[in-house]
Design brief:
Keywords: Glycosyltransferase, Transferase. The protein is of the alpha/beta class. It folds into two domains: 195 residues, 3-Layer(aba) Sandwich (Rossmann fold), CATH 3.40.50; 173 residues, Glycogen Phosphorylase B (Rossmann fold, 3-Layer(aba) Sandwich). The chain is 39% helix and 14% strand. The longest helix has 26 residues. It is globular.
């Protein structure tokens, strides 16, 4: 590559969670190929000592410090920040002259109001790519016509789209210049446990020999935690750890699930860690459990960062979802038991199978086929292709 072709600007509004973890690994892998990578993000995005990329914290943080009860104020704040962040992106592209820009988490919200700036830059030769973590955009915000217009506007400036499984993207309107490339979701680099399995269980008042399940990460309705709690009624031996915080104000609160566990008589087998879980503590949790729950609804058709994390610690999963990368990876590498989504009976049967006849996962093959190096090589080949 020529010197001018080695600079990449990576745009990321999420400062924590699976998307932020993904961006860190992907930026590091891209930097390891020899390019100069700048992560344009928020001040809350953590400083990683081992980062091979530059962190430029000039975006506004979408998450408010405290929950905003009034939905009009909440929506107005979100809209202002979204438009301001894309304005800042366009300004920085103009100021720095960077020609390759990767959007770390594609989204269409309010795109008719911000995509025009990016289309102008694309006409001037800037190459825009995006990681499409959620390629099936069937969650409708506002009128259907606005939703479709937003999807078309968001895809408009893109030349490159990166997905985790082959799919015909619904771009709402023709975009003949758009190329779709499949990239793997690499396993996360997390620290080794700092406690023994027994110590962590004792800390959480868990029996040393009982099967323990872990629901890890953002708590949201699509993860079917209510069905998991219902399944515990029919499976009397497993304990459940729920570790994470509610993703947004529109989701059911943790108190809903606590109350359900009380009503169904399984609260004594549930443990709740209602906060962001740092990496070292996450390592201890994964070392202490027997299976990870990825029990998504049928509407979920994306990849799962928690699956890659579970693979890192070699913990099998109980998974459900719609057709997509999660189902494909679990079945291809025998990473756990996959069941039909949104079905308590299927969850019960899958849980019993997982505990009585554990799978034999192909951990090494999964990690070799789904490395961050392969991810970065495919991204770099497309983003810097002078077609």
């Amino acid at each position: 590559m020529a010197e001018t072709a080695q600079r990449l600007l990576y745009f990321l509004e999420e400062s924590y969670g699976g998307t932020a973890d993904y961006a860190h690994e992907q930026c590091n892998a891209l930097a390891a190929l020899g390019m100069t990578v700048t992560l344009l993000t928020t001040p809350k995005y953590p400083c990683h000592p081992e980062a091979g990329y530059a962190r430029q914290p000039e975006l506004l943080e979408p998450k408010p410090e405290r929950p905003i009860a009034n939905r009009w104020r909440r929506g107005g704040r979100y809209a202002w920040i979204k438009l301001e962040n894309y304005r800042r992106l366009a300004r920085i592209i103009d100021e720095t002259g960077v020609r390759q820009v990767l959007i770390g988490s594609f989204g269409e919200y309010l795109a008719p109001l911000w995509a025009g700036r990016l289309r102008r830059l694309a006409r001037e030769g800037v190459v825009f790519g995006a990681v499409i973590h959620d390629p099936v955009r069937d969650y409708v915000v506002g009128p259907r016509w606005w939703h479709r217009w937003s999807i078309g506007a968001a895809y408009g400036p893109l030349r490159e789209a990166f997905v985790h499984e082959a799919i015909a993207l619904d771009t709402a309107r023709p975009n003949p210049a758009l190329r779709v490339t499949v990239i793997p979701h690499g396993p996360y680099t997390y620290p080794p446990p700092t406690r023994t399995r027994l110590d962590t269980r004792q800390q959480l008042a868990l029996p040393p020999d009982a099967p323990v399940l872990l629901a890890f990460g953002h708590i949201r309705d699509a993860k079917n935690l209510d069905l998991v709690i219902e399944s515990l009624v029919h499976c009397p031996t497993p304990y459940l750890i729920v570790a994470g915080r509610v993703q947004s104000a529109g989701q059911r609160p943790v108190d809903f699930y606590r109350a359900l566990a009380e009503q169904r008589g399984v609260a004594h087998r549930c443990r709740w860690i209602e906060r962001y879980v740092p990496n070292d503590e996450a390592a201890d949790l994964f070392a202490a459990v027997d299976a990870v729950l990825l029990t998504y609804s049928g509407a979920f058709r994306s990849a799962s960062g928690v699956l890659a994390l579970a693979a890192h610690y070699r913990v099998p999963c109980l998974a459900s979802s719609g057709p997509g990368p999660l189902k494909t990876l679990v079945q291809r590498y025998q990473l756990g038991v996959w069941v039909e989504p949104d079905d308590v009976a299927a969850l019960v049967g899958g849980l019993q199978d997982l505990l009585t006849s554990p799978p034999q996962p192909s951990w090494a093959r999964f990690q070799a086929d789904n490395s961050w190096r392969v991810n970065a090589q495919r991204v770099a080949e497309r983003m810097f292709d002078r077609r």
